[in-house]
Amino acid sequence: EQNVQEALSPTQVTGENGAFYLDVIQGLTKEFKTLPSKYFYDKQGDRLFQRIMACEDYYLTRCEAAIIRQQREQICAAIQNGEDSFDIIELGAGDGTKTVHLLDSLARQGKSFRYMPVDISGNILDELTGNLLAQNPELNIQPLEGEYFQMLDQAVSLSSLHKVVMFLGSNIGNMPPADALRFCTRIRQSIRPGDRVLIGFDLVKDPYLIRAAYSDQQGITKAFNLNLLQRINSELGADFDLDLFDHYCSYDPLTGACKSYLVSQRKHTVTFPNADIHFSEGECIWMEISQKYTLSQINQMAVDSGFEPVSTFTDSKGWFADVVWKA
Ligand code: AVI
To answer: Which keywords accompany this UniProt record (predicted)?
Structure first.
């Protein structure tokens, strides 16, 4: 039995890593161990995720890029609601490689818009802003550093212009469906009737293709998962031995849930400054969900969260969808 109380001692939970420490210890002291996937993205994690996006097995980025490249005019028309001036708020903008095509199209159509990428990482926002301005110095960018909903509410209060909220790349898949529904409902509460959202969903498909995307041949996804253990070692003073964990991915075609795990290869103990975490042989840490949806589940989510589905854009294989909903 682990001493959770001791593990959560107040001296450990103060400081900038306090929330990280709390989340990690809480996850690892559950009956079924888990770690929050939002912590994947430190500097090395960002780099590994960029390599995942470029790798052959990970089809998602290619599919969404093709949708945006090939259907950008239609997407632009669907998000504008006939308005000539508007604000685009992108939640979790990342390096912005997909968004750049849309912004480009809008700029060429002579539209007047302000692009507001939202992220909790100031570093990423600086990089993104630098990249976009290098390509188009005329672009009106206002980065917002902070939590999604705080920044969304702030962006909405800044002007009465039409709002377009974007959440691309199947980021919504990294929440269980009930949380995704709550997330969309919260967006709906922040914006006004007539405003639009553009959300990227990965679709259900051949289970082998999905499993391959999350257990790539080159082992980048495995390294991406292990990197969180490395991050916990260096930022929280734990002593995970990365060689003692393998990566496993499951996909359930009935629920659309694709889940990643790290599997302990033998019985051992990981030590934190204030806690010992015991692993048995074969015990798993659930690292991430990457939920897949059918088009009808997506439309249902729109309605259940108070939106009206407007348009659905899919790639030629029907593997990925970017949908526009109206508030
Ligand atoms: C960021 N997110 C949408 C990715 C996904 O597909 O769930 C993260 C990822 N995890 C493993 N590979 C990619």
So the answer is: Methyltransferase, Transferase
